Amino acid sequence: MRAWRVEKPAAIDDGPLRFDEVAVPEPATGELLVRVLACGVCRTDLHVTEGDLPVHRVGVIPGHEVVGEVVALGSGNSTEFDIGDRVGIAWLRHTCGECRYCLRGAENLCPRSRYTGWDADGGYAEYATVPADFALPLPSGYTPAELAPLLCAGIIGYRALERAALPEGGRLGIYGFGGSAHLAAQVALARGAEVHVMTRDSAARALALELGASSAQGAADPPPVPLDSAILFAPVGDLVPPAMAALDRGGILSIAGIHLSDIPPLNYQRHLFQEREIRSVTANTRRDARDFLTFAGEHHLEVTVHPYPLQRADHALADLAHGRFAGAAVLLP
What we know:
This protein is an alpha/beta fold. The chain has two domains: about 200 residues, Quinone Oxidoreductase, Chain A, domain 1; about 130 residues, NAD(P)-binding Rossmann-like Domain (Rossmann fold), CATH 3.40.50. About 25% of the residues lie in helices and about 25% in strands. The strands form four sheets. Strands 3, 4, 5, 8, 9, 16 and 17 form a seven-stranded mixed β-sheet that branches. Strand 10, helix 5 and strand 11 form a beta-alpha-beta unit. Helix 4 crosses helix 5 and helix 4 crosses helix 9. The relative contact order is 0.17. The mean pLDDT is about 95.
């Protein structure tokens, strides 16, 4: 099969990826082998490729927003899935099930967790494997290209929204408006929120307004109203102070990314007093994933996708790095 591997982490413009012929993986005990129908291009793939995240597997195949068709079952499977089923492969790939975090329902914090496209080969390929217990059923009414961004951008945006604890009918600020943000905004709007978007990209601002945002302005500009909650999707620590300053009393800023540049010093009175909070987001639980995908099945989301053939995955990542599109890029083998 054809697949992209991270040959040596480096800036995407320096060519860290290599397109190779590699063997089709064999599903291990308890795993599914899927033929990849679509794979989303996530900023986390860029962090793995460029070395912002440390190397966990030399020559890893990136990609963790995988829509596939089951073509083989590993031995010992007792699973809800069968050959021919359409399944999703997401970022979270393994947890121990035994630690105190797993036992209290916080498996996203498991110290022995493993991830698709970082610890194990992912979906920038024609085939991929997934542990059956971590494969996800997919909602109907979407094409494979539309489903792919739901599997990380959608799930992480959903968890970030939950972490932001937006009150009913509240005012939500969104900083950065890419693949994850444009989905989280729709979830918030469907729940009756008032959404305000801050982003540097004019096309993204136009998309935000088209989807129903009440306002859209520059990345560090103040929103027109105080915010009850905010989510930072852009991996830019410099945006934390303006986001905190925009919060109303008791407001919460949720930081959605796995990587963030350094945060400048905060002023206690201006940014934190009156019980303002900052919360990080670490991966997701399987329950988050299933809850979000159920929501997506009940409330059709407009998924803005930019398709690329698999052989142009390096161009898709470069376009993501340089902000050349609004929405989500998707690879189609």
